[in-house]
């Protein structure tokens, strides 16, 4: 059946696109392509295993055709075999993503694969994050409809992608969003804008468990409100999920709840953001036994800063769906040029603080009621647990020092509960101080130099690290970079390892090719609180990207 | 405008439908029968288990067994065509395979709903006829899952092959050829059943050891059920057999109960290496109405993804 559908999409693409491409200069087909290939060497010192195939590769190519109200697309993916760190179930080649879509403005119908998000995603977010090997696209039908101005209704039904097949569980979902100002002419010009929304998601998976009486239909609902007024904004979303015993929560029948709050104020030269969340038993997958990042229906944001500097990102936070409270505050300042703090060229300053910790959990008393053991625990909505999972305080300064020299400074204090975040018992909690200095020097209009110097100080885990990066770019085509991540403070002298990497890249129009060689340390890689494990490796890496 | 409202109405209906797609589960959260079936089971190794004080030990074994075939006959006492199919399976096909063919008669669906309440109950029948209910919770669930009675009895499953597709339900005309094609396959598992029966308490303790023959990838489950053979009871016939209501029909290999839930218990989620073992122990109770000497223990291994039965074994309760 799937093959037939894919063949239909291919047929439409080929039969309708080919004449159009020939006849016109502006092609109605566009897309992109990427191939990452890695050649491995065994490196016992860093724990890099011997790879029998020597060379592994991940690749994909997207094609989309648009004509009038109609569009069609597909993505060919190839994992021959998957690069280390990606789930080995990504094995082989195929077309796991393909769709036909009709959109006439008020009505949009998609048949096939699609991504979707309701509100902030806390009960439904189907998306792709290629760096994580994450793709929970839904395969089925989706309808979006605007019955009256300002109101959007969505309905969908389908199964989530699970590598090169689909999940056993079925997802049914609907969402309604009402932009009040758009609907009411009298409010259209108001400074204050209001949006209300509500959504419901239900999954079905048959119960064949030999022990538990499992719910086959599990529903989750959410309501949200959003307000913008001048420089102010605020939004809130609350979600509730009924009993959903799963491998992730230890097969307890407790309900789940999540609350997200964000508000802030921005004006020229200043911004303030604050966010808070409470999550309790909100893991939601279309297969109750799925693990890792497979088959998540919802998305629970981390509410922590996503750092890009390598040592600042050494210990990233992963959202704890079984329970956490978190908050984040951030202030931005842009000091104008000519001011005391701005100097000649102006200065950007940001201060950020985030924290995540346990919720209070009280185990249910099972005396006289042994069944209650399967309810797990109770938790007061506003009661916090004592265990801190993660804390990050950081200050960043971005300043242009002269016409040719730009500087970026970062200081960060980190508290990282490795046992909880990485789900491994008896791991140390890491307290670390991190500093980063980045300097960019413009030699002339084509030649640029950039360097990064990082230092991470800690007495825990693998102790202290230092990083030096040097990069030279020759615009608009070439760059070359060298990078050394040195675990100089490791208590085990034999593990004071230099993780050295060299990369050269060439860019032309929308095509880019990079070639590198080096060592990759073992660790975890996270995007938005969703993480995957990265194993140690040693070898060549080649990456080609292109769009058309 | 009317068109828009109609479309909107459809979507609202969809939203409401989603809203009611919730199953709130109240205590008990666990399958009590299955909890009882595993009470007092202590595993010592892959070859030794204590069940309620008795130790079951399996000696090392490396012989390669023959592939045995499971034939499930979905039937009902009010299904007039079913006895023809049952007799063909039990009296014509099975003798050619002996104990290599294990038959389970699953009474379920419309034609298994007995008189007087069943819709298929004939208007004229002898007093008390066709009132025995052979349906079981496990049989009903299998029937709903595989869709047999909805496809029209009689029909069956041969090693549950080709599920899920419209082809997994086999008509009686297909049974012989499908059983033949399965019988030439090599065995991928060996199964051994050991048990102790206490006629006083009606309790049977049973241990089932699975051994992989060659490396096996995938997720596998073990299903254990109890059947009762040679039950003499009413059966309805369509012509040419007369009378239509037969009081002395020999019901063969009737599914009586599941021992380890309706879809068995996982024995491996990552496959087996060659010779890999899995041992499971259970308790079960023999119903007072069953004839002990006709009760059989049936165990089979199936692929949890495809439901294909890989091996099946059957032993008598009373050796």
Question: How are the elements arranged and paired?
Answer:
The complex is a heterodimer of chains A (548) and B (319).
Chain A: H1 2-23, E1 29-40, E2 55-67, E3 70-79, E4 92-103, E5 107-114, E6 116-117, E7 125-126, E8 128-129, E9 134-135, E10 138-145, E11 151-162, E12 165-166, E13 170-179, H2 180-183, E14 192-204, E15 217-229, E16 232-241, E17 256-267, E18 270-280, E19 324-335, E20 347-359, E21 362-363, E22 377-378, E23 384-400, E24 405-417, H3 418-421, E25 429-442, E26 447-457, E27 465-474, E28 478-486, E29 498-508, E30 511-520, E31 523-527, E32 530-534, E33 537-547
Antiparallel strand pairs in A: 1-2, 1-33, 2-3, 3-4, 4-5, 5-10, 6-7, 8-9, 10-11, 11-12, 11-13, 13-14, 14-15, 15-16, 16-17, 17-18, 18-19, 19-20, 20-23, 21-22, 23-24, 24-25, 25-26, 26-27, 27-28, 28-29, 29-30, 30-33, 31-32
Chain B: H1 2-19, H2 32-37, E1 41-43, E2 48-51, E3 54-57, E4 69-75, H3 82-93, E5 101-107, H4 137-146, E6 155-158, H5 172-183, E7 189-198, E8 203-212, E9 220-228, E10 231-236, E11 245-251, E12 254-258, E13 265-268, E14 277-285, E15 295-303, E16 309-316
Parallel strand pairs in B: 4-5
Antiparallel strand pairs in B: 1-2, 2-3, 4-6, 7-8, 8-14, 9-12, 9-13, 9-15, 10-11, 15-16
Structure, explained:
The complex is a heterodimer of chains A (548) and B (319). Chain A is mostly beta strands and 548 residues long. Chain A contains three helices and 33 strands. Chain A has a 24-stranded antiparallel barrel. In chain A, strands 6-7 form a two-stranded antiparallel sheet. In chain A, a hairpin with a 4-residue loop joins strand 8 and strand 9. With 319 residues, chain B is an alpha+beta fold. Chain B has five helices and 16 strands. Chain B has helices at 2-19, 32-37, 82-93, 137-146, 172-183; strands at 41-43, 48-51, 54-57, 69-75, 101-107, 155-158, 189-198, 203-212, 220-228, 231-236, 245-251, 254-258, 265-268, 277-285, 295-303, 309-316. In chain B, strands 9, 12, 13, 15 and 16 form a five-stranded antiparallel beta sheet that branches. Chain B has a three-stranded antiparallel beta sheet with strand order 1-2-3, with no helix packed on it. In chain B, a hairpin with an 8-residue loop joins strand 10 (231-236) and strand 11. The mean pLDDT of chain B is 92.
């Amino acid at each position: 059946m799937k093959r037939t559908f894919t063949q239909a999409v291919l047929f439409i693409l080929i039969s309708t696109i080919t004449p159009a491409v020939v006849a016109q200069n502006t092609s109605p087909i566009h897309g992109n392509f990427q191939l990452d290939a890695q050649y491995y060497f065994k490196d016992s010192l860093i724990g890099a295993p011997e790879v029998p195939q020597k060379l592994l590769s991940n690749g994909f190519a997207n094609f989309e055709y648009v004509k009038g109200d109609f569009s069609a697309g597909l993505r060919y993916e190839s994992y021959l075999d998957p690069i280390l760190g990606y789930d080995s179930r990504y094995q082989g080649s195929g077309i796991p993503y393909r769709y036909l879509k009709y959109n006439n403005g008020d009505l949009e119908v998609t048949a096939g694969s699609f991504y979707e998000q309701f509100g902030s995603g806390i009960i439904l977010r189907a998306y792709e994050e290629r760096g994580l090997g994450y793709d929970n696209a839904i395969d089925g039908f989706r309808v979006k409809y605007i019955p009256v101005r300002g109101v959007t209704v969505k309905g969908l039904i389908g199964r989530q992608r699970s590598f090169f097949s689909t999940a056993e569980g079925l997802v049914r979902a609907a969402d309604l969003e009402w932009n009040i100002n758009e609907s009411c002419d009298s409010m259209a010009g108001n400074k204050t804008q209001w949006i209300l929304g509500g959504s419901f998601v239900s999954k079905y998976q048959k119960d064949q468990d030999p022990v538990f009486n499992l719910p086959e239909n599990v529903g989750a609902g959410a309501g949200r409100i959003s307000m913008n007024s001048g420089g102010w904004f605020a939004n809130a979303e609350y979600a509730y999920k009924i009993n959903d015993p799963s491998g992730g929560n230890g097969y307890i029948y407790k309900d789940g709840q999540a609350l997200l709050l964000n508000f802030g104020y921005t004006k020229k030269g200043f911004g303030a953001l604050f966010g808070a969340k409470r999550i309790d038993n909100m893991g939601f997958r279309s297969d109750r036994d799925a693990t890792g990042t497979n088959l998540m229906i919802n998305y629970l944001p981390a509410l922590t800063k996503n750092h890009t500097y390598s040592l600042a990102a050494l210990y990233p936070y992963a959202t704890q769906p079984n329970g956490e409270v978190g908050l984040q505050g951030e202030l931005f300042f842009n000091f104008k040029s000519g001011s005391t703090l701005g100097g000649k060229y102006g200065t950007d300053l940001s201060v950020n603080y985030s924290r995540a910790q346990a919720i209070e959990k009280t185990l249910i008393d099972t005396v006289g009621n042994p069944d209650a053991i399967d309810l797990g625990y109770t938790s007061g909505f506003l009661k916090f647990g004592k265990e801190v999972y993660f804390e990050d305080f950081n200050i960043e300064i971005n300043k242009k020092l002269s016409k040719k020299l730009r500087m970026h400074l970062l200081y960060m204090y980190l508290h990282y509960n490795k046992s909880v975040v990485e789900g491994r018992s008896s791991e140390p909690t890491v307290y670390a101080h991190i500093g980063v200095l980045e300097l960019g020097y413009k030699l002339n209009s084509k030649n640029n130099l950039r360097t990064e110097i990082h230092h991470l100080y800690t007495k825990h885990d693998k102790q202290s690290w230092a990083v030096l990066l040097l990069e030279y770019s020759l615009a608009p085509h070439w760059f070359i970079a060298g990078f050394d991540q040195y675990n100089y403070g490791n208590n085990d002298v034999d593990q004071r390892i230099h993780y050295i990497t060299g990369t050269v890249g060439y860019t032309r129009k929308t095509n880019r090719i990079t070639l590198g060689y080096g060592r990759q340390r073992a660790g975890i890689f996270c995007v938005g609180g969703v993480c995957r494990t990265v194993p140690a490796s040693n070898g060549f890496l080649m990456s080609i990207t292109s769009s058309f | 405008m009317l068109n828009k409202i109609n479309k909107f109405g459809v979507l609202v209906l969809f939203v409401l439908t989603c809203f009611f797609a919730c199953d709130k589960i109240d205590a008990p959260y666990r399958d009590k029968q299955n909890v009882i079936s595993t009470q007092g089971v202590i595993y010592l190794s892959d070859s030794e288990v204590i069940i309620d004080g008795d130790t079951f030990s399996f000696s090392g074994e490396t012989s390669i067994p023959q592939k045995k075939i499971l034939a499930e006959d979905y039937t009902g006492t009010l299904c007039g065509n079913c006895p023809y199919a049952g007799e063909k399976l039990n009296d014509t096909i099975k003798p050619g395979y002996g104990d290599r063919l294990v038959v389970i008669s699953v009474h379920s669906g419309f034609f298994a709903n007995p008189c007087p309440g069943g819709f298929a109950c004939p208007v004229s029948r002898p007093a008390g006829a066709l009132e025995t209910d052979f349906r079981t919770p496990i049989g009903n669930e299998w029937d709903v899952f595989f869709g047999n009675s909805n496809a029209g009895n009689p029909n069956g499953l041969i090693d549950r092959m080709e599920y899920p597709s419209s082809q997994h339900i086999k008509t009686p005309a297909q049974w012989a050829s499908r059983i033949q094609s399965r019988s030439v396959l090599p065995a991928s598992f060996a199964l051994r059943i050991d048990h102790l029966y206490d006629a006083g308490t009606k309790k049977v303790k049973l241990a089932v050891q699975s051994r992989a023959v060659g490396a096996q990838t995938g997720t596998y489950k073990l299903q254990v059920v109890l059947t009762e053979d040679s039950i003499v009871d009413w059966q309805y016939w369509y012509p040419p057999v007369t009378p239509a209501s037969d009081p002395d029909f020999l019901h063969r290999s009737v599914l009586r109960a599941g021992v380890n839930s309706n879809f068995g218990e996982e024995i491996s989620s990552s496959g087996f290496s060659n010779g890999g073992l899995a041992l499971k122990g259970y308790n079960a109770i023999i119903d007072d109405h069953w004839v002990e000497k006709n009760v059989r223990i049936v165990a089979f291994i199936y692929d949890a993804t495809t439901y294909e039965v890989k091996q099946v074994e059957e032993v008598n309760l009373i050796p």
